[in-house]
Amino acid sequence: MASATEIIESARxxxxxxxxxLESKELLGSLGIPTTEMxxxxxxxxxxAMSAEIGYPCVLKVSSPDITHKxxxxxxxxxxxxxxxxxxxxxxIMSSCRDKFPQAAIEGVTVQNMAPPGLEVIIGLATDPxxxxxxxxxxxxxxxxxxxxxxxxxxxxxxxxxxxxVREIRAARLLDGFRGxxxxxxxxxxxxxxxxSAFAEKTPAVTEMDLNPIFAYPHGAVAVDARVxxxx
Length: 232
Ligand code: ADP
Ligand code: MG
Fold this sequence. Notes:
Blueprint: H1 4-13, H2 21-30, E1 38-41, H3 44-54, E2 58-63, E3 76-80, H4 83-100, E4 108-113, E5 119-128, E6 132-139, H5 142-145, E7 150-154, H6 159-167, H7 186-202, E8 206-216, E9 221-223, E10 226-230
Helix pairs in contact: 3-4, 6-7
């Protein structure tokens, strides 16, 4: 498995500052952060063969250094139940992405296991011109997009900071379970915050990270999408 440094250097050699989802998740994996299993397929046939290995249901997503918002491009298909659905999803993703981003270099698609539904949360790293690296935590969807319900902590986070980051959001009660759902594993989320913080502290070359979404479960959490950005 490649180290974070190797992944970063290989993107830089290509002249890229934005790592692909595959590279970003490999980097997370090297930090001990759980992600979905994934492989790159360069053709419809590859995608079908890999989906059979990964198992159903699976997910196909466009892989292109030029397409960062994959859903907006029609580049994400979830819940694929068999080889026929994978083949059709491959064609649909390619035609939509070529149509919407005619200039984009497309490597193919990533084939991923479909993570079971969980509570969607977001963990981010940003670099503030005055304060330096800052970590962000929030719940996914409307909570972040509409209500801006997020908490911020300066890197390096202490264990207490990580706990506070998770508890300080206004919707924190949703983490404790509601209408009969089980509470989510907040320790797993704190662990991800601390691992990203420790990495950011020793790797100033990385200026931004988006783990969006992370699915949080009663036991554990998994990063379902990730993007790592290098400083110029
Ligand atoms: P985008 O580039 O548009 O942010 P994402 O990778 O976040 O694309 O995918 C969009 C949505 O599809 C996610 O928010 C998640 O709900 C769902 N999704 C993506 N990948 C998976 C996966 N491997 N398992 C389960 N759901 C997924
Ligand atoms: Mg996403």
